[in-house]
Amino acid sequence: MYDVIIVGAGPTGIFCALELVKKSNLKVIVLERGSSIQKRFCPMREQGGECRRCHSCALISGWGGAGAFSDGKLTLSLDAGGRLTELLSPEVVRELLDYVEQIYLSFGNGGRLFDPSQDDIANFTLKAQRAGLKLVPMKIRHLGTENCYDILLEMENFLKNRVEIRPLSKVEEILVDNASGEVKGVKLASGEEILGRYVVVAPGRSGASWLEEQARRLGLSLERNPVDIGVRVELPAAVMEELTSVFYEAKLIYYSRSFDDRVRTFCMCPHGEVVVEWNEEEKVLSVNGHSYRSRETDKTNFAILVSTSFTEPFHEPNLYGSHVARLANMLSGAVIVQRLGDLINGRRSTYSRIIRGPIEPSLKEAVPGDLSFVLPFRYLQDIKEMLEALDKIAPGVYSPFTLLYGVEVKFYSSKLRLSPSLETEIRNLFAGGDGAGITRGLVQASISGIVIGREILKREGMQVS
Hints:
The protein is α+β, with helices and mostly antiparallel strands and 465 residues long. It contains twelve helices and 22 strands.
C-alpha cells in the first residue's frame, strides 16, 4: 500500500515527486511505461536509418517524458505553455514560474537566458503588426537537448533513493472504490494491482488518448480541446537570425484572410534539426524539432500549426489528427518533405529538385512528396498565408527552397474538469500536465506537479512553502 501513486515520469510526475520528498516521508511510487533515462535508446537517432516504430518510442516515453530529448526550452511566461491561469491566479502561476526555474537550475547547466529588452519588443511588435502578425514576447531559458537530458538524469538519481521508481510499467486502468467514491489505485497491463491513497495521473501528450478513455470510463467531465495540425518548416538559420538572436523562439500568431483560422509558430529550433517521432497510442509518425547547444547546424526549423476547434456532433479531434498524419505515413512510408516552391506550383518534390536547392534536409528519413495529397486545402492555404506574412519580417521565409515536413500534429487530450488543486471529480485522484489538457510545455507541466504535491501535503497536515 502506497501513500501516493504517480502515473507518468514526465515533468508533472517528477516535480510532484520532488515536492513530496522535500517535505514528507510519504511512501511514493512512480510508474512509467517507458525506460529509465539512461536506457532510453532510439535506434534511428543513434544509428541512422528509418524509424523502427518501437513499441515504446524512446523519444517521447520514459523518464523525463517527451521533454527529455526536446529542445530544452523553459518558457517563463504566463502567455504560453498552458492554461493554468484558468485555474490559478496569475500571481500564483508567476511565483511558481520562478520556483520551477530555480529547481531546474539547481540540477544542472542553466543554458542561456533570452530576456528581450523593451526596445526590442517594441521594434519587433511594430514589424509584426505591419505584417498582420501578433508577437507574443516571452522570457525563455534554452537548456539545449543535451543539458535537458543531464538535468533529468540528476533528478532521477536524486529521487531513486527517496521514492520507488518503476519503469516499463504501463498502467491500464485507474481503480476507484465504488462505495466511497475515492480513488484506490491502479491496475497495470500485467494484471498487477497497486493500491494507494492518492493517485496522480500525468501520462503526457503521448498518453492523452489513454487518459481520455479512462475519464470516459469513470464518468469524468471532459471539455474538447482544439487539435493542432500543420507542418515543420526548415530554412537557413541566417533567415531567422534577427529574430532568434533576440527571442530564441519567436511566438507569432496569425489569423488567416481566407478562413479566419488561428495559425501560430511553435517550437522554434534555431540551428537545430528536424526529427521524427512514433506515437504508439495513435500509431502514427509525426515530426518535431530539436536544438543542441553544443552541436549547432546551419538551419533553423519551427512548426506552423493551425488550431481547429470542432463542434457538435464531432468529438474526436485526436482521431482526426491521427488520420491526417496516417495519410502522410501511408503515402511516404514515413513523413513527407516538400519544397515550398513545388507546393505553390502544384507538383510533388523529388530528390533531384531538393538537392539542387541551398537547403539539405536535416531529416534524412523524410521522403519527397506532395503535401496537397495529405492536408486539406484550408490548412494549406492558412500555412501559405502565414509563410507570406513571416516573410515580411524575416525575408527569405517565403522562398521556393524552404522545406516543409508533414505532418506535425499535437495531440491534446480533452481537458478534464479539475479543481484549483488539480483534483478530478473523484476524491484524491489528481491530473496534470499535457495529458490532462491543461499544459503545453515543460514549465507549466512542472508547475502542475508542484500544485498537486502541495495539495497532498496539505491534506496530510504538513507545512508547505
